[in-house]
Amino acid sequence: QVQLVESGGGLVQAGDSLRLSCSASGGTFSNYAVAWYRQAPGKKREMVAAITTGGTSDYADFVEGRFTVSRDNARNMVYLQMNDLKFEDAAVYYCATVYNGGWIWGQGTQVTVSG
After folding, report:
1. Where is 45: in which H helix or E strand?
2. CA torsion sign, 106 to 33 to 59 to 66?
3. In the chain, which stretches have pLDDT less than 50?
4. Which of 5, 99, 103, 108 minimizes the number of CB atoms within 10 Å of its CB?
5. What are phi and psi of 37, to 5 degrees?
6. How far apart are CA 12 and CA 72, in angstroms?
7. What pairing do the DSSP bridges indicate for beta strands 67-72 and 77-82?
C-alpha cells in the first residue's frame, strides 16, 4: 500500500516562497504519477500541479509560472516549489496518486499567507 506524507507548509508573507515535500512509501514510486491539490476553507479541492512518471509536469492556470513540481525517484520524493505566494494561495496542500485503481491522499500540509 502506498502512503504519502506532506511537509513544508507554514506561515509566510505574500511574495515569499515555500517548498512542499511529499514523501512516498510502499510500492515502486517511480511507477506513479503524482499530483498536488489544495483546498481552502469553504472551497472545493482543486488540482495545483501534476508530474508524470517521466517527469512531464502540468499546472493549473492560476499557478501562472510561480510553482514548479519535481520528483526524485531515488528518494521517493515529490516537491512543489512555490514562489511569489499570494494571499489566495493559502490552503491545505495535499499530494495524491492513483494506486490499484483508487486515489491515495496524504494528510495535507497547511500553507498560510499573510498580506
Report:
1. none
2. positive
3. none
4. 103
5. -125, 165
6. 25
7. antiparallel
